[in-house]
Amino acid sequence: MNTEKICPFLGVFTLHNYPINHYLCPLLYIMISANNITLAYGKRVLFDEVNINFSKGNCYGIIGANGAGKSTFLKIISGEIEPNKGTIDITPGERMAVLNQNHFAFDDQTVINTVLIGHKKLWKIMHERDAIYAKEDFSEADGIKAGELENEFGEMGGYTAESDAATLLSELGVQDDLHQQLMKDISANLKVRVLLAQAIFGSPDILLLDEPTNNLDVETISWLENFLAEYENIVLVVSHDRHFLDAVCTHVADVDRSKIKVYTGNYSFWYESSQLAARQMSDKNKKVEEKRKDLLDFIARFSANASKSKQATSRKKALEKLVIDDIQPSNRKYPGIIFKQEREVGNEILKVENLSKSFDGKMLFSKLNFDIQKNQKIAFLSREPMALTSFFEIINGRSKADGGNIEWGTTITPAYLPNDNSEYFDGSTLNLMDWLRQFVPPTVKDVDEDFLRGFLGKMLFSGDEILKKTTVLSGGEKVRCMLSKMMLQNPNVLILDEPTNHLDLESIIAFNDSMTTFPGIVLFTTHDHQYMQTVANRIIEITPNGMIDKLMTYDEYLQDDRVKAQRLELYGN
Question: How many domains does the chain contain in total?
């Protein structure tokens, strides 16, 4: 990685030089500059002469279709991947931190030390200092060196580092009694939190986060949103969580067609403005002045509706300076997720009585009692993901409960999207056309190639793609195949276990929109806040000690004081 930068006032300096006063050189505000970045794997070109700058005080959401190269670009920035061509220039003296994706990398370290390791220079000084003090033949030169290290250690906040790390861990939900345990002895969901603490410890100048909300509960995600909204340095984040991107981002960096372009505003601003621009482009009869006025009105509305204090100020100022020509239509393709009911549901849909389930001696849920009414779309919550999957498996007849009963109405035609769809693809060497053919209901006649192409085409499988083997499908492609299978069934009840997993933002938006307009029943669980908020009109939270059942939206559920009291009673914390 090239770490040299030229300043018109100070000449050339390198990343290893002492920090230079930022006021002396305007270029220093850039902090990261990608110059002619090109990367190809064989004939597949990920990036073609990408030129882009990232500056201090901004949070950039890196967006793009699955496989576009979002995570790869972060690895180029961090130096983990070397591009075929081009350089990454970083302002000298800036500290970069990256959210580690290897959950086993620090198994032999304690939890607290894993966090401290995130500040590499501080960690190194700690060990150098301790090694000098441990010497039996401690000399005068050693004393001088130790003194220098002590000064540097103090200037970096070393004397409060351990307590700072402990506070950070506690805020992320890692309890004090775990801080001295080895990483290999804590659960996978806690490891995620520790690695997140490691990345943000010490407020690095440049923070790279790849899917930071994965496996976090709603409270921790909310904490992270607030933390990043107040963060004064530079953040680059890849996420499929639209609510999260909206809460933290001042800009969007769109990876598309081997290029990256930065747009002012959060994800919703980018999405809605690009959709507006596309509609205007197709409206040939509308005058230029009217189009410009629509765009200006749109910008004014968004700049007035920012949600976070720090981000709101910078976002509003940036939007006010936005040039109309910067708003461009998106090149994205959105799948057509369209469910048609064979028949409407009757009055009896699903009745659950005193349902319970345990696993390996651990109670997942108990005392579940509820029935479902027409027009209900129910989001199921739990602190234990296995409880939700077990519940869905039981009501789909794929697993047995320890106790209790379930009863479906006679008018119900359910379709199930499991969290793990491997059983539908393992051992299969069929092409997509033949794979889908095996799921056509017997009531459907005249199943020809055009019929199947129609369902696969809605899921963006076109041309010769329908002949590709299921053995080479990505995770997102498998989910889209499952959706084609489900649409064939013409269901009136949809059961969705983490439906947004593996999907790109375009597919998530299309799926989300489809569920808001679907006239039947939807039973689902998801970590996608916006999906949950816009689809559900009833919330059921299942716990080892009972359940909470509320006719309200997700945001209302999170803010309801009575719900908070019930959760405290059921969980005990």
Answer: 2
